[in-house]
Amino acid sequence: YKASRFSPLMSVVRHTVITLPTPVNISTWWNFGSLLGVCLAIQIFSGLVLSLHFTAHTDLSFYVVIQSFGDVYYNWWFRALHANGASFFFIGLYLHVARGMYYGSYVFKEVWSVGVVILLLVMASAFLGYVLPWGQMSFWGATVITSLFSALPIIGGDVVIWLWGGFSVDNATLTRFFGLHFLLPFTVAGLAGLHLFFLHDQGSSNPLGVSSDYNKVVFHHYYVLKDLVGVCFFVGPLLGLVYFNPWLLGDPENFIEGNPLVTPHHIQPEWYFLFAYAILRAVPNKLGGVVALAVAVLILLYMPFSPQTAIKGLSFYPWGKALFFSLVGVFILLTWAGAKPVEEPYVVVSQVLSFLYFSYFLLIGPLTRIQDKLL
Amino acid sequence: MAGWTVGKKVLATALGMGATGGAGLYVALDESVKADLTLHPPKLPWSHKGPIDSFDHASIRRGYQVYKQVCAACHSLKYIPYRHFVDVFMTEDEAKEEAAEIIVRDGPNDIGEMFDRPGKLTDYLPMPFPNSAAAAYANNGAVPPDLSLMVLARHGGEDYLYHLLNGYCDPPEGVELGEGQHFNPYFPGGAIGMAPPLYTDIIEYEDGTPATQSQLAKDVITFLSWTAMPEHDERKKFGMKAMLVLIPFTALCYYKKRQYWSLLKSGKYVYNPKKY
């Protein structure tokens, strides 16, 4: 406390993580904010170390990444941590967003909007990073996703060539993807600071949906310890994967060097993008699919403007709860469908699930308002 | 439905379950017809698969012998240098001797000429063909893939490779193979350009192990697992140490958290209405 009297920086630290008034009843679902901060730190740290031994060139990238396993001390650890850290980052992100949707955290408009931007930037960063090892899935994933921009009317073709830096995904694409992948996480870190700034302006909400002002405690030691326990339970499985099964969540195709002349049987992204991939492929029109893909994430920006309920969150709305958990099931099934080939019955299944996914956002407002009127 | 008798409810439940089961059976039967014609490899009890199991280094050594005498004729291991053998399945002298058996093009020398020299520890295992065009020409148009990462580059890993090597059989009725192709039910599409590479006693092991077909396959795949995951043993050892620290630390954190929170958790709010 003495230091903060003299140092503005220590004063910020004190008000953010020591004396911050925090609701006494926030549950484990509120741990994911700090967990995501830990994930970001892990990714930046491991990524920095990996970048010391990485060369972004189509002739060298694959070779350099593989060679580093045998030749650079513990580089296998940093690569496994970075690859699996990305998966855990998305686990944390989706659970954090789900918490926000269930408990009505989106009423904090600024916090929510910055959060959606962070989600988009992390998705972009993950996509860019996956291209860097230059395996088959890296190359073809980059080709498929960048080609989507050709669906833009009039300027689409030129935009794609501009993105590629040439007439196909090649060395120019790889080098700029490396630069952007290095830059974006620092942008995310800055936005995370802004996210926290807006949050602390109003203070955290709580599971009951009522005002938190009636019962608050200081952040330290209560929530420092609670967050530390959360970190242990989160990092434990992450390290378990890193040490005992590092490639469980990966695709074997990415251990084959990228070859523009050989197309893999099933081009698919990592698991955290499969739900969006399923929605993209469900629409039989290219531009329609791209729009559906974008709206699948951007629709979150609509939530602060959806009709507000009498009680914040869905805790006291049984129909709303049922719809929310249906959305969770739909999300999981969309992830499953995204890994399937584009043939029947998976096409119809993806279309039905995509319809149900978007229906949640249209139905949740009216459903909860009906219950409000019945009360 | 609220006014239904118990019998009606039971009947409705049974009908519902029957309909769901019937639909599921229909879907399963329909799917089985649509299934791809590739046989999925059964899981095998590899000695290095467990969370605290290391590689069988004697098996890696035998597997290298199989690779060198059988597979190296067509398949490269371009990411593996001889120095990686040291203290894994060879001594330094053995690895140097092994490297010295190959001839490597090096140079330029002081007068600007390229020259041939015996291999050193720092050299990589030699490629059987100078380029992929030569490899395809020598193998009926199919390029034998590099094996360095093969265990990680195929769905099923070791199980797939083992069953591929041992699964050759006559093609079923109606299946036509191209010239030079062989039938293998584990290979996607069934028609593989590689002839069955392993037979019992195709080589003689240095350590006297009987060289049965399954032993040869097991050893070469253990070797290939090592080439794909050279950090395997160190990774699991590191993991055991990490868990030895992480688990007690987690328990300690959880205890301290509960201790600090016990004051709040055992608190009680009592409403004492005002007596007027």
TrEMBL record, chain A:
Residue positions binding a ubiquinone: 200
Pfam families given in the database record: Cytochrom_B_C, Cytochrome_B
GO biological processes: mitochondrial electron transport, ubiquinol to cytochrome c
Domain of life: Eukaryota
Binding site for heme b b566: 96, 195
Cofactor(s), names only, from the UniProt record: heme; heme b
InterPro entries: Cyt_b/b6_C, Cyt_b/b6_C_sf, Cyt_b/b6_N, Cytb/b6-like_sf, Cytochrome_b, Cytochrome_b_C_euk/bac, Cytochrome_b_N_euk/bac, Di-haem_cyt_TM
Keywords on record: Electron transport, Heme, Iron, Membrane, Metal-binding, Mitochondrion, Mitochondrion inner membrane, Respiratory chain, Transmembrane, Transmembrane helix, Transport, Ubiquinone
A GO term from the CC aspect: respiratory chain complex III
SUPFAM superfamilies associated with the record: a domain/subunit of cytochrome bc1 complex (Ubiquinol-cytochrome c reductase), Transmembrane di-heme cytochromes
MF annotations from Gene Ontology: metal ion binding; oxidoreductase activity; quinol-cytochrome-c reductase activity
Annotated compartments: Mitochondrion inner membrane
Membrane-spanning parts: 35-56, 76-98, 110-132, 138-165, 177-199, 219-244, 287-305, 317-339, 346-367
Cofactor binding comment, as recorded: Binds 2 heme groups non-covalently.
Stretches assigned to the Cytochrome b/b6 C-terminal region profile domain: 209-375
Membrane topology: Multi-pass membrane protein
Major localization listed first in the record, in broad terms: mitochondrion
Positions of the Cytochrome b/b6 N-terminal region profile domain: 1-208
Family matches, as CDD domains: cytochrome_b_C, Cytochrome_b_N
Binding site for heme b b562: 82, 181
The protein's assembly and partners: The main subunits of complex b-c1 are: cytochrome b, cytochrome c1 and the Rieske protein.
Function per UniProt: Component of the ubiquinol-cytochrome c reductase complex (complex III or cytochrome b-c1 complex) that is part of the mitochondrial respiratory chain. The b-c1 complex mediates electron transfer from ubiquinol to cytochrome c. Contributes to the generation of a proton gradient across the mitochondrial membrane that is then used for ATP synthesis.
Family: Belongs to the cytochrome b family.
Name of protein: Cytochrome b
Organism expressing this protein natively: Tigriopus californicus
Lineage of the organism: Eukaryota, Metazoa, Ecdysozoa, Arthropoda, Crustacea
Protein encoded by which gene: cytb
TrEMBL record, chain B:
Keyword Transmembrane found: yes
InterPro entries: Cyt_c-like_dom, Cyt_c-like_dom_sf, Cyt_c1, Cyt_c1_TM_anchor_C
GO MF, one example: heme binding
Main subcellular localisation: mitochondrion
Keyword flag Nucleus: no
This protein's UniProt keywords: Electron transport, Heme, Iron, Membrane, Metal-binding, Mitochondrion, Mitochondrion inner membrane, Respiratory chain, Transmembrane, Transmembrane helix, Transport
Comment on bound cofactor: Binds 1 heme c group covalently per subunit.
Entry's localization field: Mitochondrion inner membrane
Residues binding heme c: 71, 74-75, 194
Signal peptide: none
Record's function text: Electron carrier protein. The oxidized form of the cytochrome c heme group can accept an electron from the heme group of the cytochrome c1 subunit of cytochrome reductase. Cytochrome c then transfers this electron to the cytochrome oxidase complex, the final protein carrier in the mitochondrial electron-transport chain.
Name assigned to this protein: Cytochrome c1
